[in-house]
Write a structure and sequence with these properties.
This protein is an alpha/beta fold. The protein has helices at about 5-25, 55-65, 85-100, 110-125, 140-155, 160-165, 180-185, 210-220, 245-255, 290-295, 310-315, 345-380, 405-425, 450-465; strands at about 75, 135, 170-175, 195-200, 225-230, 255-260, 285-290, 300-305, 385, 395-400, 430-435, 435-445.
Length: about 475
């Protein structure tokens, strides 16, 4: 493709994206296609000869778009937000155009130094102490794996990297924790049976006294407590583990504390919401995802560590071909995580923070929290609905209830209710199960969501239960 064709189609696609943002509410939020509907429209073999760009773009619109669920739709209330912004998309275009591979400082000094500065900005924005150093990972799952591996090496004096396991190491987390913890435990070689799920309280938060008891019992058995993963904003219910108390226990027993605030962390930018962060200053590592609730398109996960030397010693391998004269003076972020190759993710974060400023991001968070509170208020005024978990930040967990119906009947009714709501195409919600009760989740976090979109959820429910 020559530069004129690139310019022509580039302008065309930017225009298409701009129009998409303008008309996104015309699409059903959740794709209505069934399994295999996209695949059957695609040839089983690649083309022998190159095809016209016009034909590729046409097929994108005809085949791919009907199979897209629209995460940027203002009626997206499913799972968690993955909001982006036009300015972030522009930065992503520059990143793709530059094609930077930022594995070490030498391969693009600006990529390394911008990441260092932007991560310091983020650290300060959410109120972490200056002793934390940050690095961008792709996802919180990867960041958690880094924490588990660092904890493993610190606990064993870096022996596992050299010799493998010679003792049983134990990991502790809430029964409400994200599935990535179990995955990380398995990948890191601890073994699933050494992941200890700690009981939660009536608010679905980890019980510190039960954690302490589990640690004591493991010590008596000759096991080695290695890491505790606390969650600020569990996926199911946005439960907040009591990090302050958990941190005291970890410090007493010399256990690594990792805090997962993947979704909720953005809210710490708002000072009056920052109470849930109490105790994080005592953690060894902390992660949150700007690609969830901070207007930065996927992927961009902010991982902070108190002792970067432990992280680097865990991951660093120094082949001759990567050695440079600058190594002692700079950060080489290939040593701060799993992959050698690294995308220039800090560029879009820089664009977003500069464009919106701290106040703009904080205003968006306040708006979303306010919309969730308003929705919860409507439910509380209606005896047909029950809120099943504390409404923390922008997530509401609820269900329809009817006098005389048992939980099994209500579970089935709410499952059907969810299917009807999503079939409307106007909004998209997902579910969870809390204490055996099937409930609907309303997760507010899209950039363009307004009160009318939240109101539409309530209206649809009223229509379907009447």
């Amino acid at each position: 493709m020559d530069k004129e064709a690139f310019r022509k189609y580039g302008h065309e696609l930017v225009d298409w994206i701009a129009e998409y943002y303008e008309t996104i509410e015309e699409y059903p939020v959740k794709s209505r296609l069934g399994p295999g509907d996209v695949k059957k429209q695609l040839p089983s073999a690649p083309p022998d000869k190159g095809e016209a760009t016009e034909k590729i773009i046409e097929d994108f619109k005809r085949i791919i778009m009907p199979g897209i669920s629209h995460w940027q739709h203002p009626g997206w209330f499913a799972y968690f937000p993955a909001n982006n912004s036009p300015v972030s998309v522009l930065a992503e275009m520059l990143t793709a155009g530059l094609g930077v591979q930022g594995m070490i400082w030498d391969t693009s000094p600006a990529a390394t130094e911008l990441e260092e500065v932007v991560m310091n900005w983020l650290r300060d924005m959410i109120g972490l102490p200056a002793e934390f150093s940050g690095v961008i990972q792709d996802t919180a799952s990867t960041a958690t794996l880094c924490a588990l591996l660092s904890a493993r090496e610190k606990t064993t004096g870096f022996e596992v990297n050299q010799k493998g396991f010679d003792k049983t190491l134990r990991i502790y987390t809430s029964s409400q924790t994200h599935s990535s913890i179990e995955k990380g435990v398995k990948i890191a070689g601890f073994g699933k049976q050494n992941l200890v799920y700690v009981e939660v309280d009536e608010n679905f938060a980890l019980k510190p006294d039960v954690l302490r008891q589990a640690i004591e019992e493991d010590l008596q058995k000759g096991f080695v407590p290695c890491c505790v993963v606390a969650t600020l904003g569990t996926t199911s219910s946005m439960a907040m583990d009591p990090v302050e108390e958990i941190a005291e226990i970890c410090m007493q027993y010399g256990i690594w504390l990792h805090v997962d605030a993947a979704f909720a962390g953005t809210a710490a930018i708002v000072p009056q919401y920052r109470e849930f962060m109490k105790g994080t200053e005592k953690a060894d590592s902390f992660v949150f995802n700007p690609h969830k609730w901070m207007l930065t398109n996927f992927d961009c996960s902010a991982y902070f560590v108190k002792e970067p030397e432990i992280l680097k010693r865990t991951f660093s391998i120094m082949p001759e071909y990567l050695k440079t004269a600058a190594d002692e003076k700079v950060n080489n972020y290939r040593d701060w995580g799993v992959p050698l190759g690294r995308r220039f993710r800090s560029l879009k974060l820089w664009f977003v923070i500069r464009y919106y400023g701290q106040e703009g991001i904080a205003d968006m968070v306040r708006k979303h929290v306010g919309l969730a509170a308003k929705f919860a208020g409507w439910l509380k005024e209606n005896p047909d609905f029950e809120i099943l978990a504390p409404v923390n930040l922008s997530l509401v967990c609820f269900r329809y209830v009817k006098q005389g119906f048992d939980d099994a009947t209500l579970n089935e009714f709410n499952k059907n209710l969810l299917e009807k709501i999503n079939a409307s195409g106007d909004v998209y919600l997902t579910h969870t199960v809390l204490n055996g009760k099937y409930c609907l989740r309303l997760s507010v976090g899209q950039r363009t969501t307004e009160e009318r979109h939240v109101r539409r959820v309530y209206e649809l429910m009223q229509d379907f239960i009447s």
